[in-house]
Amino acid sequence: MATEKLISIGIGSNINREANIRGAVLHLSRHYPLLQVSPVYESEALGFTGPPFYNLVVSFFTSNTLLEVQQQCKDIEESFGRPAETEKYSSRTLDLDILMFGDRVQENSANGEPDLPRSEILTSAFVLKPLADLHPLHRHPTKKQSFQELWKLFLHSDEGQQQALTVVSFRW
Fold it and tell me: Which tens digit of pLDDT belongs to each residue from 152-161?
């Protein structure tokens, strides 16, 4: 039997964002009923001009493979109107990114799997803050610092000073 791993997924939307965020969490909870959900944050679009995003992180344990989880995420994105190919810096109905897959570390995977842990954890407030909310003491697999420690360092960095987050009073 496969060992269960803690998976963390970043969720974002800046088109019909409340409905799309709610729907994504509902779809994921059907596959993973013990879903942990961070607070929802609003953040400016990075890398392009567009409406602000709602972002959060969800986590769950699963024995599914990385490719199975990745396919479920793509299926959910497409069910909310996201085309299979989307420009990196653009508005989107829904974005589901696998941030962590247990403590797995991989770069430049040849079989279409994502790089892990996802690099945005260390560079984007809208990823790191909700991850630190959910798992403050969990350690980043390569940095070996807790997400809480990484968040405190990020807040005092130049990038951290430029990326504003606002907690959203989100109604589930």
Answer: 999 999 888 8
